[in-house]
């Protein structure tokens, strides 16, 4: 471990060692391959959704698909912040990450993760308006308002990431420097601080746990109203299409929020399950998003067929 002298403290950590996910050495090659394939599929799947929404005029003019495109963009970056570092831990390469790199990773993860959290809430609100207020939907959720809401989610996410990174790394870190986790996240890093972390844990609980729980509650309330409205649809086909569209979103939201709330409402926990649970919303969710939205959304599948046939730009409005 490299250290540098400081006038107020004996030594300060200049890098961290990420211990990664616990695994038997015999499975190292297999896990490397699994996470490498997951990363490639995540990037390709989300890039395909992003390009499809951008290329098809029938999709990129509708708020629902604008939000889906933004979600794919976020997933690509979120996966890139976390998964390559996991893959590196299955190789003989150094597990060290510079102090500044740890700060950047923590900020990027919470910036992208919280933006995604707000985006899921906007997607639920969009579906609520489309199903429960169909006649007023074009006025209540137009392209301009959608862009404004998305911009607000990005700004809020950036503020959130800045607050968490600043509070976490304002504390002194004088050793040890081994982070018992697969990336630089708040609970794991705080355990290494050479100072009282009570304020940090409280802020983590409120700013992450409660915000995530609140967003999840708003989403559930939106879907409670949506289900009530769907049950009033007289035709079975109409109910099926509405449930299919909303079911995809609710599935992804559950996979994302439940593990997230489990981790951050227990900021002081040292459970060995935390790492396994965190894999769901850092690795699995970005992979599932394009699969679920493509396989369960007829309009996206139709747009893909048009683009594959080379007719997306000509017949996209038909």
UniProtKB/TrEMBL annotation:
Predominant location: membrane
Tagged with keyword Manganese: no
UniProt name for this protein: Olfactory receptor 10G2-like
All copies of domain G-protein coupled receptors family 1 profile, residue ranges: 45-293
Organism expressing this protein natively: Chinchilla lanigera (Long-tailed chinchilla)
Keyword Heme on entry: no
InterPro entries on file: GPCR_Rhodpsn, GPCR_Rhodpsn_7TM, Olfact_rcpt
Compartments in which it is found: Cell membrane
Membrane disposition: Multi-pass membrane protein
Name of one Pfam family that matches: 7tm_4
Keywords associated with the record: Cell membrane, G-protein coupled receptor, Membrane, Olfaction, Receptor, Sensory transduction, Transducer, Transmembrane, Transmembrane helix
GO cellular component terms, A-Z: plasma membrane
MF (Gene Ontology): G protein-coupled receptor activity; olfactory receptor activity
Transmembrane segments: 29-53, 65-87, 107-125, 145-163, 208-231, 243-265, 277-295
């Amino acid at each position: 471990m490299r250290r540098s002298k400081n006038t107020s403290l004996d030594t300060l950590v200049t890098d961290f060692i990420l211990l990664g996910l616990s695994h038997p050495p015999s499975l190292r090659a297999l896990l490397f391959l699994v996470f490498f394939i997951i990363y490639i599929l995540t990037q390709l799947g989300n890039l395909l959704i992003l390009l499809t929404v951008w290329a098809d005029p029938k999709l990129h003019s509708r708020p629902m698909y604008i939000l889906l495109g933004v979600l794919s963009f976020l997933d690509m970056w979120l996966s890139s912040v976390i998964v390559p570092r996991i893959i590196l831990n299955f190789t003989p390469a150094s597990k060290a990450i510079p102090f500044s790199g740890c700060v950047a990773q923590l900020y990027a993860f919470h910036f992208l993760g919280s933006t995604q959290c707000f985006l899921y809430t906007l997607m639920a609100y969009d579906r609520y308006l489309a199903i429960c207020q169909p006649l007023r939907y074009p006025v209540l959720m137009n392209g301009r308002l959608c862009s404004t809401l998305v911009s607000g989610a990005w700004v809020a996410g950036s503020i959130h990431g800045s607050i968490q990174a600043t509070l976490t790394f304002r504390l002194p870190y004088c050793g040890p420097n081994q982070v018992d986790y697969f990336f630089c996240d708040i609970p794991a890093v705080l355990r290494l601080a050479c100072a009282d972390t009570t304020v940090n844990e409280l802020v983590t609980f409120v700013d992450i746990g409660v915000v995530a729980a609140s967003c999840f509650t708003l989403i559930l309330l939106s879907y409670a109203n949506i289900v009530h409205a769907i049950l009033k649809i007289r035709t079975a086909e109409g109910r099926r299409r509405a449930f299919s569209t909303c079911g995809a979103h609710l599935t992804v939201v559950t996979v994302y929020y439940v593990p997230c709330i489990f981790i951050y409402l227990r900021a002081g926990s040292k459970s060995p399950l935390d790492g396994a649970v965190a894999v769901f919303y850092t690795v699995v969710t970005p992979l599932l998003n394009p699969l679920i939205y493509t396989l369960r959304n007829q309009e996206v599948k139709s747009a893909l067929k048009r683009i594959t046939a080379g007719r997306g730009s000509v017949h996209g409005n038909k």
